[in-house]
Amino acid sequence: MLVLGLDSFPVEMLGQLLEWNPTVITTQETAQMLIDYGIKIDWIITDDIHGNLQSDVKVMPAGSDTPAEAALKYLITHNYPAVNIITDDLQLKDYLYFADKINLVIFHADQKIYAINSGFSKWKPAGDKIEILTHSHEIHYSGLEQTSKHCFKTTQDGFFNLKFDQPFLFIAEKL
Question: How many Å apart are CA 63 and CA 124, to the nearest integer?
Fold first, then answer.
C-alpha cells in the first residue's frame, strides 16, 4: 500500500485495505498520521529524514522522482503484482507510465480509480455511476447510459462492458 495522503480518505477503510497489503510505503508528511493510527510502516519516501521513526523503517530516497514514481519503481522492480494507493492530490499523469506494469488501484476522496483494458466487464447494481477519466477517441459500451461527457450509470443489475481504441483507460467508481 502506498499512502501519499489521508486527509480525504475514510479512516475506517484503512483497516480493510491493510488486510490485503503486506508492505506499507508512505511519505514523511503522512507517516505520523499512520503511526498515530497504530499502523506499522515499512518504507518512508524522503530525501531528508526528520522526526522519530518506528524501528525497522527503511528510507526510500525519491531523488528527482515524485514520491509516487519512486515507490512504483521500487514495487515493479521487486515484482509486486499490485498496489493500493491512497492520495489527496490525484495527478493521473504520475501513473500513466506504470498502468501497464503493475495493477494500480487509486483511492482519492470518495472514488476508487483503476486502469482497465479494452473488453473490460464488471457486474454492478443498477444506477451505479462510472466515470471515464482518460480520453479515448472511440468508446463502445453496453449496460451503461451516458449521463454527461465522461459519466455513465448502469442501466440495470448486471454486467457492463467497455471497449476502446487504446491500451488502457482509467475509470472511477464511488466508494
Answer: 42
CA separation for the pair 134, 51 (Å, rounded)? 39
| Structural contact between residues 37 and 54, judged by C-beta atoms closer than 8 angstroms | no
Is the four-CA dihedral 157, 12, 150, 141 of positive or negative sign?
negative
**Predicted TM-score (pTM) of this structure:** 0.90
Beta-ladder partners of 123: 159
Q: For residue 25, what are the contacts with CB-CB under 8 A and spacing of at least 6?
A: 1, 2, 3, 41, 42, 43, 44, 45, 60, 71, 74, 75
Residue found by looking up cell 515499512 in the block: 42
* pLDDT (average), residues 141-170: 95
161 vs 11, which has greater pLDDT? 161
> What mean pLDDT value characterizes the chain?
91
d(C-alpha 163, C-alpha 119), whole Å:
5
Half-sphere exposure of 77 (CA within 13 A, CB side): 6
In this model, does residue 51 exceed pLDDT 60? Answer: no
